Every structure is written in structure tokens, then in C-alpha cells.
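Question (not urgent): is this output format expected?
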Amino acid sequence: MFTNQASDFNLALSLKQRRARQESGLFLAEGRKLVAEGLTAGCPCQAVYVREDFLGQHEEAESLLAQANTIVLGERKFRRLADTEQPQGVIGVFEWSSLVCAEPKEAMLPVLFDVADPRNMGNIVRSADWFGLQEIVVGETCVDPFNGKAVRSSMGSVFRTRFVMSENLVASLKALKERYRILVADTAGTDYRTLKSKEASAIVFSNEARGPSPEILALADAIATIPGSGRAESLCVATAAAVMFAAFF
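Got this back:
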């Protein structure tokens, strides 16, 4: 719990690092929209740090902050905690444990393998939320979905998503095959539009430079491809995911 402002600030500052997030069970959400989304969603909030000039400027935001343990920081200290060049003046410290589940239940399940760019991670989370997909399996080589850039790119959708954090994605996919059809997105396969089905499906999206591993391809019931007629080498993984979500929704 947050009891001493100095030590609390040091803990919050450490949350920029993945290890600290994993050990503490906490993450940072920066900006008015994100903090409001987290508080509205009921995600447990340990503290909200606000820059001293923020108070009195945003009536709607302040009504939400009345629910939280709000700590005022000076400009210099706030900038140390902020992760953006032009911070809006508010940063929340939230618990991620309520956003994680052990086993998926949804009929359509995005699965992420080796997605390294936090912006791609956040955009996939946002697109999944748009199409009503509430659970995402995250492989062990992926960027942390609670990374600051990933959280901001999700535009608040992180608070409406439940993450299944896999420590061994190949083993997880083997277990999922008992309940799900495994589709793997790749550049050489079947037109994704022909694969729509009422059958429960787990769709694997991979690092766009390296693609799916041979072990993951071996588990696929089908390889799903988005046909293109231009000269681009591939689609951004977040774009590919959104296109397929729209088709299978």
C-alpha cells in the first residue's frame, strides 16, 4: 500500500521497468483518458500522481480523482515519472492482477507470439476491444502488455481486456487444441475470408519480421493469409489482426 510519499514515488518510478511491474503487480497509466478509464473500469488503483498545476484545471477528471489516493508532485519530480514528452499532468498506479486470467473462455481468441513493439501490442488490444474480444493470450517472448507505450496505445482498452500470460506458448497452444481450432496468420496460406467458422478459434499473430516459429506452424489447423496486390512486403501485425478480427467478428 502507499503510505510514505517518498518511498511510494520510488516504487512508482521503478514501474517503468518490466521486472518491477512483475514483482509488484503494478503498472503505470499516464494521461487523463487512461486514468479515467482505469478508475471507471474499477481496476484497483494504488495511487494517482498529479502535477501541481493540474488541480483546478479539469473538473471532470478531478471528480474521478476524488475516489483515488491522489499525490501532488512538483514539475521536476512529475517529469521524472512521466514517460511522454508533453505529459498531461496525471499518472495512475494500477494493479494488473485483476486484468489477468488463468484460462480463456471466449470462442474467438487472439494469441500473440513474439510481438515486440509495444505500440503494436497496444493497437492489437484496442482493436480486439473494438470487436468485442475480451481475452488475449500473450506468449512469453512478447512485450509486456502493461508496458507504458503499450498501455497508452491501447487508449484504455487494456482495462477491458483479460490477458492469459503464457510461460510456454507452444505448450499453451497444444492445450488449446483440445478446445480450439488453431489458425496461424502468415504470408503463405489460405485466404482468411474462406476460414470463417462458428467453431471456436484461436488465431496466432506473430512478429512481422520473423513470423511464426516452425513449432507453432506445426500446430496450425490452417494458415490464414490476407491477400494483397501491392508491393509491400507485409502488413503491420496490428493491422493484420484488425483485418482478421473484422472478418471473424
